[in-house]
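Next up, sample data:
>
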Amino acid sequence: MEQLKETPLVGRHRALGALMAPFGGWEMPIQYEGILAEHRACREKSALFDICHMGEFRYKGDLVAGGLEDVFTFSVASIPVGRSRYGFLLNEQGGIVDDLIVFRIAEDEAMIVVNAATAPNDFSVIESRLPGSARFEDISAATGKLDLQGPMSRDVLLSLLGHEVAAIPYFRFIETDVLGKPAIVSRTGYTGELGYEIFLPAGKVDELWSTLLTYPSVKPAGLGARDLLRLEVGYSLYGNDLDETITPLEAGLDAFVNLDKQFVGRDALLAQKHAGLSRAKVAFKVGSRRSPRHYYEIWTGDARVGTVTSGAFSPMLGCGVGIGLVDPASARPGTALSIRHGNVAMDAVACTLPFFAGGSLRS
């Protein structure tokens, strides 16, 4: 059997009665009180997520001469200090090795945050593309990460950390002390709500978790609610909507690809763009409360045109929603679709993203 990794909070999760399950090689909490209750807490108040399973790498050296500038689909050197940027690490065929965020810590320093399941491979791939003498290290084991998300998250952190938090714009961060230790507080997240990601030494995560849960407006939330929250705003999930066989162009994420710079996979993307896509991302709403699921088939009329990559019932919309890959003509908004699996069939219609646009993200 696979030996699952555990975050520093595994004892806390069990004490709270969390349903635990494997995720990306880790034993993680799926839910506590329930997915819908935790979803509601995040949309209406604030929810606390243990995200210590994510990977973090540190790069220190000249960003251009050291090679980091040519690793990702975006420019690292053009990120102002104190800001972060989302994009991709690709293979030669343009497939997505991982989606990630780079934080510009200093003129000669960056932190790269990657997905848990792909972290070991990501580190090897990035390291192999760094010909310079820069220092590149995996700091995942020493780094803890908690996400506080929801419209009341700012009030909570203002009370705990002070007024400095109020001045953090979206996709920016500050370096500050949290519980007496150096930390990064970033205004980013995966829920479509106002929220913060807090990076601090792994040994302080337990204390911060306990402290945040003393606030009446904060509830613990598991990966089940997190997945539902991200789907409602149309965010992609690696391993479902993204993988090494899917390019950013097919995933509808070309806004995060700068084809004017060098990176591995660029030539493949240019060729794909020139030839035209054979499949494209589709977002759809189901005409009922039924939930489409990963790998359900997508049909138009009598033709199978693609596959669902993510799907669920949306509490905010009161219907099923999903994302998939289909032939480009079937991805056009307004196209009538049928979602099928065995004897199950549900009518759907292609639409634009996000499904839910009423969150507090830009508050």
